[in-house]
């Protein structure tokens, strides 16, 4: 799957992933009203509304980008109907030829991590049949529990040719509270980064590993160091746009081949119609605003090479 | 909810939580065959089977214990039908008067953590209605992202009078890889423990805080230190039984009032019928074996006081 991701990035010339993180207040009125009209003020209506909203965006941008990253929390907040919308979104994006990164940040130990890995990347054996739960292409994983928590994901990745992105340095203001703590002369995130490189060694694609890393756009100096520590790991970069990261900040996350990083934008794309810059599109044409925002983001990022 | 948990622990005289972590190979043949007979070798059959299996156990033990801890990964592995079984299990346990700790180990930032907190502990506003997704009483939370990731949970806990258990020192063999790394003269888990105490300060129940901690039974020396660092935090202790922790190891996790800790056992209870000790019950009577295992665990833990 990492080979497929790299290929699609080359083909679209867009090291970009669109974060499908729907909040109910992002959903245009006509979509929400229709869902509530049909199903009342229920979780079911919310699930239907975010799915319709997503579908509109995916239809408008799928030819421009290699991948999407649905954040499962935004679906899980609506309980089962929300997760049904997540599953529909994953399936639809795959149909459209997009690589799907499930932003699930799971992480547990032993058999529990195996269960998450099977639920999201692999399958479970039921009698003689192998059945697939959510079946994303990549997921994000939390490293706090150590190798025990990561290895089950790596095993499933090898079997299914899928991939993970391990949280190394997150984009949020308080990420340093634990991640920047000095262990001897190195911050914790560097030690985690060294583990990422090691975990990825024995599951290499053509040029990059199945094991990637999450490093926030908001910490470019750290991105530079981590790029060197994990040369074969793709870096998934959140924090561009709404969170404050700029194109200039992104350069250190890429290798000299112009590859090695993929930059996420969520709100900036899916909620573009609410920005003054794109307000001419109007709420009804929210998806066209998202398309224009993707085109602008591609240009912005292309400017650093 | 922490008050309710403490009260139920006193009433049952059992600082015990039963981990409802169903694996498909734990489910007795008669239950699995029935489900597969009705729905084929599908995720739906798996979901139905684990729900029936859980229900049997809950019916057999609910009067003996204060709380259950379903591990969501074991449901999530079966996709949507598995999560339907999770939701049914949560609802049923609450009907039976049990406190439900969702072992979800979620953790993200800002609005994403809020979404998880709303999905599992609080509700979401849809039009004029507040709707609840999974609605557990407590959840476990991963601290790697720092205060940004925890605060949204604490806010929802205050509003809904619910609680969280933050991962501090996990029970698995490689938990030390990052958690034991020395920051100056202190290991990382102590620093996380200090944060837990601080996060819990302004959301106190009668004697314990809404913010508890997870500390594995397999590291009693560390449990002793952490007990002192977080005197007002309830400690959820995994790793007893199948993972190697013994009753003797548990003493340091409790305060002098005999409170302050709740010990989880999963496999040891729900899969008791597969142990030689309980084999006389037979597979059909798996729930009676679980009841006996709970009685034995209560006795074992009572022996340390």
Describe the model:
Two copies of one chain form a homodimer. The longest helix of chain A has 19 residues, at 43-61. With 305 residues, chain A is of the alpha/beta class. In chain A, helix 3 runs parallel beside helix 5 (79-95) and helix 3 (43-61) packs across helix 13. Chain A is built from 13 helices and twelve strands. Chain A has helices spanning 2-12, 29-39, 43-61, 73-76, 79-95, 110-120, 147-160, 176-179, 188-201, 220-229, 247-250, 267-270, 286-302, and strands at 16-18, 67-68, 99-106, 124-126, 129-131, 138-141, 163-169, 182-183, 186-187, 211-215, 235-237, 261-265. Chain A has an eight-stranded parallel β-barrel, surrounded by seven helices. Chain A has a two-stranded antiparallel sheet with strand order 4-5. The first copy, chain A, is globular, with a radius of gyration of 19 Å.
Keywords, separated by commas or semicolons:
two-stranded antiparallel sheet; alpha/beta; globular; eight-stranded parallel barrel; 13 helices; 12 strands; homodimer; 305 residues
Q: How big is the Rg of chain A?
A: 19 Å
* Overall outline of chain A: globular
Major sheet attributes of chain A: 8 strands, parallel, barrel
Helical content band of chain A: 40-55%
Could you report the average pLDDT of chain A, rounded to the nearest whole number?
A: 95
The total beta strand count of chain A reads: 12
């Amino acid at each position: 799957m990492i080979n497929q991701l790299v290929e699609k990035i080359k083909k679209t010339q867009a090291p970009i992933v669109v974060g499908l993180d729907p909040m109910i207040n992002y959903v245009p009125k006509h979509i929400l009203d229709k869902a509530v009209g049909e199903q009342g003020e229920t979780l079911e209506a919310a699930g239907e509304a975010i799915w319709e909203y997503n579908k509109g965006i995916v239809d408008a941008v799928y030819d421009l980008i290699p991948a999407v990253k649905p954040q499962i929390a935004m679906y899980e907040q609506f309980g089962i109907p929300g997760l049904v919308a997540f599953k529909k979104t994953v399936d639809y994006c795959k149909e459209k030829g997009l690589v799907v990164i499930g932003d699930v940040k799971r992480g547990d130990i032993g058999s529990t991590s195996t269960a998450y890995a099977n639920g999201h990347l692999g399958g479970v054996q039921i009698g003689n049949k192998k059945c697939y739960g959510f079946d994303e292409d990549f997921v994000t994983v939390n490293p706090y529990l150590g190798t025990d928590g990561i290895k089950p994901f790596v095993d499933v990745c090898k079997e299914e040719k899928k991939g993970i992105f391990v949280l190394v340095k997150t984009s949020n203001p308080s990420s340093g509270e634990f991640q920047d703590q000095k262990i001897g002369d190195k911050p914790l995130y560097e030690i985690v980064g060294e583990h990422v490189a090691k975990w990825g060694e024995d599951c290499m694609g053509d040029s990059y590993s199945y094991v990637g890393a999450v490093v926030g756009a908001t910490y470019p100096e750290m991105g530079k160091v981590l790029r060197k520590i994990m040369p074969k790991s793709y870096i998934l970069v959140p924090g561009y746009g709404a969170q404050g990261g700029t194109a200039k900040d992104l350069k250190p996350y890429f290798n000299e081949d112009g590859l090695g990083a993929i930059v996420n934008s969520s709100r900036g794309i899916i909620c573009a119609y609410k920005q003054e810059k794109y307000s001419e599109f109007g709420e009804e044409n929210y998806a066209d605003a998202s398309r224009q925002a993707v085109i602008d983001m591609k240009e912005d990022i292309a400017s650093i090479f």
